Amino acid sequence: MKISKLPEVELKVMRYICEANKVLTSRELVAAMEEKYEWNESTTFTVLKRLERREFLSTEKIGKLTHYNILVKEKKYLRFETKEFLKNIHKNSISSLMSALHGKTTKWMKIN
């Protein structure tokens, strides 16, 4: 499975499920997203469907409820995002990253 960058709305749902640290039902997720972000039911279901298609979540239908389980763990996604950030922003340069973290600008960052 190839991991891809998640849009912010999908990342919010993934973070919520990761923090819950358990399988959650569609009902639980709809209620949580409504309370936390004021999303309507259809928005939550759309985001969940996208995450399932991207293979970040698996689903199991039990009765009337769909249960959602994480397939891509938080640590794995963080590793992917960090590598992408380093590659795309810092051209795989650890020294560029360290300079940015310590407030020192590199030559290409300076604006004249």
Automatic annotation (TrEMBL):
Molecular function via GO: DNA binding
Keyword Thylakoid found: no
Residue ranges that the Swiss-Prot or TrEMBL entry lists as coiled coil: none
Biological processes per GO annotation: negative regulation of DNA-templated transcription
A Pfam cross-reference name: Penicillinase_R
Keyword set, alphabetical order: DNA-binding, Transcription, Transcription regulation
Keyword Calcium: no
Segments passing through the bilayer: none
Family: Belongs to the BlaI transcriptional regulatory family.
Protein name per its UniProtKB record: Transcriptional regulator, BlaI/MecI/CopY family
